[in-house]
Amino acid sequence: MLFSTSIASRPILHKCFIIKFSSFLSSSCYTSSAAAVQPFLPTPNFDEYDSKQLASSFKDWFRTREDALLNRIFEILAATATTTKEDDDDLPVSARTSELELSQLGLRLNEMFVLRVLKSGKDVLSCLKFFDWAGRQPGFYHTRATFHAIFKILSKQKLMSVMLDFLESYRMQKMSHRVRFYDTLVAGYAVAGKPGIALKLFGAMRFQGFDLGPFAYHVFLNALVEQSCFDVVEVVLKQIKLRGLENEVTSCIRVKNYCKQNKLSEAVFYLRRLQSKGDVINDHMVGILVDAHCKKNKFKEAHRLMEDFWGLRKFSLGNTYGIWIRNLVQAGKLDGAMDFLQSKKLMEGYVPEVFRYNVLVCRLLRENRLDDVCDLLVEMMEGRISPDKVTMNAAMCFFCKAGMVDVALDLYHSRSDFGLSLNSLAYNYLINTLCGDGSVDEAYRVLLDSIKQGYFPGKRTTCILADALCREGKLDKMKELVLMSLELNIMQSEALSVKFISALCKARRVEDGYCIHGQLKRHDKVSYRYTYLDLIHGFNRANRRDMSSRLLIEMQENGHRPTRKMYRAVICCICTMVNPENCFFKLLEMQLSRQEPACKLFNFFIDGAGHAKRPDLAREVFEMMARNGIEHNSDTKIFMMQSYLKGERIADALNFYNDLCKKSKKGNPGRKLNNTMVVGLSKANRPDLALEVLRDLREKGLLPSLESYEELVRSFCTVENYDMVVEVVDDLLKTGRKVSSFIGNTLLLHSVRSRELYQAWVQSGNVTTEAFPSGDFTLGELIGLFSGVYEVNEQLEDLDEVIEQCFPLDNFTYNTLLRRLSMTNRLDSFVELFNKMRKKGYQPDSYTYNIVVQSLCKHGRRNEAMRWVEEIHRMGFELTKHTEQLM
């Protein structure tokens, strides 16, 4: 491409990624037969890759986790309401249907199968329903292990109230299970975070001559350690020891007990003593100790502990390795985690469990280390590691981040084939990527699906989608999005509504915008102040003057203070009426009834009448202030004078100004008033009168503002009186000021259009040049250069630096310079200047991009020009009529 800054709308695939996946897919058993006919090979163009084959390979990999029976069980459970009634006749129809469907599966219920189902559970409710159903089936009785499994699920989800209700029901009913009654209650209450109740039950059962079994003792002990009941822990440990129930599980819990109390040295000593005595030491004990050290940021000590047990070779340290990797990742030591994984895989054949891989993949994704993510995904596929839901969602996010939205979309559309359920992060990534890729309709369909699944996109994603919908004019879809967010009571709906109302007003659908505004009010959501401004401008364009006034009052009732700009918009709308006087003063009267009469309010009405070119109304308000004893401040006088100037009543403006001069000390009404008069006359295309005022100020020894000189130069250039332009610039330099960017840009712009300015400059012969910084060019020579008097030779490639010798640069300067260079055959210099503009921090605007397209068209590079047109539209800019004609 011509320019160094790429305008591609999505990232380009890395070469290394293509090579990695191509080498894997060419030999992978996951590659489908259809894809195997045309192997996925790297091509010279890295933006080309076989997305269908890549998606197919990942689908085959994802299917390896499929368990049809378990999926069917949870499908049935998810389709019905929960119930725990024992009498099937009392069950709802939907529940009886699920009971029947589960029974028809012919499940062989035993402890191992129930534990497998509970472990694979997708949600707590489904697990509870299956646990209840299984417990009511003839021939099956829940065991300590199944009870403990459901307790762990409830505890992990922090559903303590549900768990306590469950235990209380069990305790009161004393259902005839083959599991020991007190064992279940003590273990259950301990896991539920109620050690007091568990201890009370333990005392009761001991009083009755019963005792806990080994399993319940250790569950009870572990729960006490987890809840930091250290005194009770010692008591229970003694009971276990007295009954001869100590084993390696007890030792494990002892290590955890030391670590929970931050007694790491005691824990290490205990483990060493076990080792010296020849007692059993296992991976779990070492893992607990390593984890505790890492939590205290003692990574060196943790690593030394692992080294001490590497040489024993009596047991595998797979669990410890996984804990070490997780802690490294959490501490941000990603390189260390990756190196450790690869070294252990190479030397010991260590293969982490899928959830360990997930931790690494997710963190690497967050750090945008896509090459490393690619390595791990390939490694998992080669190692035949069955992916889980987290893996699949991470892969979706990876493809989105890598710019391969087509692969991500293919997997998304096939998600039901391998049981993929996207999480909120994957939905956000997919929607964001589709919006960036220009597939807004597809992004919206994904959004609707995410809402059905219970996920509403995040604030940033919603804003991106809303911007895309508004930009492409898909306002009906935007309306659905806003209404859905309101119905779901999503907090960011107000921000959505603001964007939508603004878009509707711009599309001249202000009535629809007002309806959305009404929906917000019905949901007790107050619109933002600038939303009212959008609505007011929208109704103004629709000539709905009644609505403009109503909205102004409504926004005040909702606690917003209208700005001068809002008052101006409403008053301008009122003044388009045939006889606006009654409405104008009625609005003023209503405003005065809502607040104390103040100069600021009257100023707003004078300013509004002035912008509506009704100086007569402004004058009446001006006099009303005097009648009510409200003193005119400097702003009042400025607004009144501007009203005359905007209404083209120049004589009245001069008379008003002269009166102020006579009433003021030494004939000076104030710096602001003086400058306002010069600027106002210049903007009214009366630079001759403005120059007289400026000369009068100079004779009085007063210094006009820089804006006064700027507007005078602009006005004289507009009427092509270049002799006066030279005089004004000369007078500016005599004040000791330098030429501003505005004046410099104006001079260069008119220099490009004709040589008359340069001729006037030369003929004057009295323009001061000493005020400019020393350099190769004076301002006059620069004007000659842009007028075409001088050639753009080899020494003038850095024209922006030449201009900077005379006045500060800004975006307009660069646009003018680019336009001047586009008239030459030096397209390379044009390109260099554009890139330099970006490097210096100047952001190209709509005019810049139009100049680029025009230049490319003039030099016959139409294909490149078309790519830039796409970029212009993507950034929300429009083509000028001149650009469209060239295309």
From TrEMBL:
Keyword terms of this UniProt record: Repeat
InterPro entries per the UniProt record, alphabetical: PPR-containing_protein, PPR_rpt, TPR-like_helical_dom_sf
A Pfam family that the UniProt record links to this protein: PPR
PPR repeat spans: 353-387, 388-422, 423-457, 528-562, 670-704, 810-844, 845-879
Claim: Isomerase is one of the keywords in the record: no
Family indicated by similarity: Belongs to the PPR family. P subfamily.
PANTHER family: MEMBRANE-ASSOCIATED SALT-INDUCIBLE PROTEIN-LIKE, OS03G0201400 PROTEIN
The name this protein goes by in its record: Pentatricopeptide repeat-containing protein
